[in-house]
Predict the 3D structure of the following.
Amino acid sequence: MGLKSVDKVLKTDVLVIGGGDTGLRAAIEARDKGANVILLAKGNVPGGASVMAAFIAGGMGEESGTPQEHFEDTILGGGYLSNQKLVRKLVEDIPVRIRELEKWGMLFARDIDTHYIAVREGGHRYPRLVQAAGRGSGNRVPHVLLEQAVNRGVDIHLFIFTTGLVKKDNEVIGATAIDMKTGEFIFVHAKSTILAAGGTSKIYNRGACARLNTGDGFAMALRAGAELANMEFMQYIPLGIINEGSPDGYTLGGTPKAKEGYLINRLGERFMKRHDPVWMEKANRARMTVAIAKEIKEGRGCEKGGVLVDLTRITEN
Ligand SMILES: Cc1cc2nc3c(=O)[nH]c(=O)nc-3n(C[C@H](O)[C@H](O)[C@H](O)COP(=O)(O)OP(=O)(O)OC[C@H]3O[C@@H](n4cnc5c(N)ncnc54)[C@H](O)[C@@H]3O)c2cc1C
């Protein structure tokens, strides 16, 4: 790339690409280590999937079991395929991060001062999911992180589409981007570049995902010579509501009551009896997704493609 074709050059110690939870938390850490940080985001900040998440698998409730039990349930749920070192780190670190968020002003739902209200996720022995205080409040995490990033002087640029990583002598030295507000072509020169551009969910033709999640980070990394790992492990939230003809849907993943519904195939059978007679509809997402896919593949799916969730037995409370 010739610098002559660039309208603007910015310089920084650390460039963070992405303004969701991952990018914001990385930017905070880099600032705390004394680095100058520029954060570029294709949309608003916070944005991406981070503003859609409802729960954190925190293991903070009084009846949430031990970190070891959380570890075991997660490994079992992943069919022994998960990286156990990372899972260990996750279950041990989450309570620390939740306390950190609280220190930064996040309020979690509690019924008395010390008791987190936790919800049980499919395939877990104990209720471990915690969420922000206030009914229907969704996820406050990215907003709390944004406040911390701004307070620390992270230089945040909105509506900047990063197009590629730039390499010199086999090292990444920054990234090119287009300012979607002005059309300017930008080069950010950085000692370190952190890719936090979210997932790839929008490559599927239907979903309840963030429209910005088009896998740009994966593509940039691949083009720069990185090896992508675990690409076969796309996670689906199996229960959702779709509008006919629309690419957008609504996930029931954040609606614990929905998990009390019965999954029914075209023949009216409660088919989880066949696939997981112990956990039934309370099986983890991976098992439930595989069970639904098998029902459809074997011809027991409904006319419009999916299976049904029978919620008629669920009362408001
Ligand atoms: C509907 C839904 C519900 C979910 N519920 C939960 C839940 O309850 N609990 C849970 O733990 N997880 C949940 N998740 C998953 C969770 O939201 C994600 O794992 C997490 O938010 C990922 O954060 P992130 O910062 O990596 O990516 P995102 O939050 O997706 O952020 C990506 C950022 O990258 C930016 N970006 C993308 N491409 C570019 C580019 N080319 N140039 C510049 N910037 C770019 C975007 O603008 C955005 O700022 C849910 C996901 C969805 C979709």
About this structure: The mean pLDDT is 89. Residues 72 and 122 are 14 Å apart (CA to CA).
